[in-house]
Amino acid sequence: MSTDTTLLADHVCLITVGDAAALDRRESIAGEQLRDALLSTSDDDDVKAIILAGLTTGRFAGLVGPQDAHPGTRASYSGTRGLHQVVTYCKKVVIAEVDGQVGPTASALCLAADFVVSTSQSTFASPFSVPEANYPLAVLTMRANRTKAWMFRGGELDARSAYEAGFVNELVPGKSLRQATTDLGRRVALMPLDGLTVSKMNIGAAFDVIGVGREFDATEASVAAGGASW
Amino acid sequence: MVSGQGVHAELADAPHVGRIVIDRPDHGNAFTLDMCRQFVAALATLEADDYVKVIVVCGNGPDLTVGLDPEEVGTYHDRVDVPAERIPSLRARLRAAGEIFWGRDGLYGRLLTSQKVTVLAANGRCHDVGLDLALFCDIAVAGSGAEFANPRWQHVGVDGDVSMLLATVGRKRANELMFAAARWTPEQALSAGLVNIVVEVPDASAAALEVARTVSTIMRDGIAAEKYLTLAATEKMGIGAGFATATIMSAMSSTIHFRPGEFNFLRARRDLGVAGALAAAEQAKSLT
Questions:
Q1: Residue B72: exposed, middle, or buried by beta-carbon count in 10 A (0-12, 13-18, 19+)?
Q2: Contact B161, B243 (CB under 8 A)
């Protein structure tokens, strides 16, 4: 798997995931590559918005359980500098761009992202089969009843339902998808860098008040102990 | 107070209903800092009146409010009793943000903890302060031409409280207002949970008064108990802690530096005057 990073417009960066299925297989290298790309991009003062593309996998083949996962999984996916927390607490605005079938790990990354822009034929696998899917964050995004329904019933959410639930911000035709995410990134980039940084800190503080950080800590401990089983 | 120059309290034309009127229509009901304090005073007056059970908040004219007066944006720390310095100290900025907006006796702190039921009539532009009034009043009724936004955020970032916004409309929808300069129609606001009712006419005042009449049939002790229960729930959700964060973030956002190419409203106001700065701000929002 390779992760590409390119500048799409002034202050708008595109990160393309080479093989999203590798994330569902919890391959350490896949998680680390994407995490490192996000970290280095978010540390770049010339970047204000990050578009995350290549999140679709085709039909979901099944998650790898923790007993089969690479020993580096905890660090690359679960920890403070793991992929999911890096997206959730990213210093820059993260826009997930979706066109197709989204597997559970990418779905959890969509949950963590600030925006999701999707084509109307896309589908989202339940993120809750991934240990790092953050329940308080999901409740803050979709409300409690919808979150519980998705969590306990599993299954895919079609794009229209995801939009109505507040999981997706915008539905666009496939041919307009890149333009829509780029325009959204450019609009975000109109905010001064200092203001954007303060805004993201402000939101991160609100997350922690409602327990998003504690949930991540609990997940990390659970993954470390091999507590989650499939 | 001279009518048309501030915020005042009055009794509405319904039993047990008071009204707070934002009354500066020739400026789109833009809030001066004095008006923030007048709002708090008006609220205190009506709260002290045991006859009043419900308070309708409304604007005079087509708009609820266009937000903070652009003449005064960036100057609020000059109004606190902290020794003046060429560059206001952090403690002056913190104290101002707390006293005027986010502290226990600030505009939003007092509205959040009001012991009366508050009903907002959201007409026309409900920008900036208007968006926060929709969040912190108990019930919001929107007219058909209402528009909810905070255009100021695009120039300085999201200052103030975000916890209530996140809790009310959901995280990703909140991001549209915070980062994408969204301007919500009444229907979008209804779908997101920001308002409770949308009426088919531009003026929501009559519908808001009707809601207030219904609420006023509840006995006083019941209203007081329910308000305390909602306050307890709000505290459990961390909104109170959010206000402390809001004070810090408001103060921090008044110290931001602008990089080359970023629009600086305060500099534009100094160079171009208020009207020129507002026009430049509109221009700066264009993606072309």
A1: middle
A2: yes
What is the identity of the amino acid at A141?
A: T
- For residue A12, the domain's CATH number is 3.90.226.10
Whether B171 sits inside 8 A of A166 (CB atoms) is yes
B233 phi-psi bin (left φ>0, alpha ψ -120 to 50, beta other): alpha
| Distance from C-alpha of A86 to C-alpha of B81, rounded to nearest angstrom | 42
Confidence of residue B266 (pLDDT cuts 50, 70, 90): confident
Residue B91 in contact with residue B53, Cβ under 8 Å? no
pLDDT in tens, A171-202: 999 999 999 999 999 999 999 999 999 999 99
Examine the pLDDT at B176 and tell me if it is beyond 50. Answer: yes
**Domain limits at A61?**
3-175+193-224
> Which band of pLDDT confidence, cut at 50, 70 and 90, is reported for residue A230?
very low
Q: What are the pLDDT digits (tens) for B88-120? A: 788 888 888 888 998 889 999 999 999 999 999
Helices A135-142 and A104-112: crossing angle in degrees, nearest 10, is 70
Pick the residue of B172, B245, B256 with the most A CBs within 10 A to test the interface with A by mutation: B172
pLDDT of B241 > 60? The answer is yes
Contact B103, B127 (CB under 8 A): no
Structure tokens at A38: 């996000």
Considering the domain boundaries, does residue A75 fall inside one?
yes
**Position A230 in a domain:** no
A7 interfacial to chain B (CB closer than 8 Å): no
Cβ within 8 Å of B, A 178-207: 183-184, 186-188, 190-199, 201-203, 205-206
A–B interface: beta-carbon pairs under 8 A: 118
Q: Is residue A91 part of a domain?
A: yes
B32 secondary structure, DSSP code: P
Residues of A in contact with B154 (CB under 8 A): 190-191
Minimum Cα–Cα distance from B156: chain A residue: A195
Check residue B160 and give its pLDDT: 84
Q: What is the pTM of this model?
A: 0.93
Q: How many domains does chain A have?
A: 1
Which of B163, B256, B264 lies nearest to residue A209, judging by beta carbons?
A: B163
Q: Do the Cβ atoms of B171 and A193 come within 8 Å?
A: no
With respect to residue A187, please indicate whether it lies within any of the assigned structural domains: no
Q: Which of chain B's residues have a Cβ under 8 Å away from the Cβ of A116? A: 172
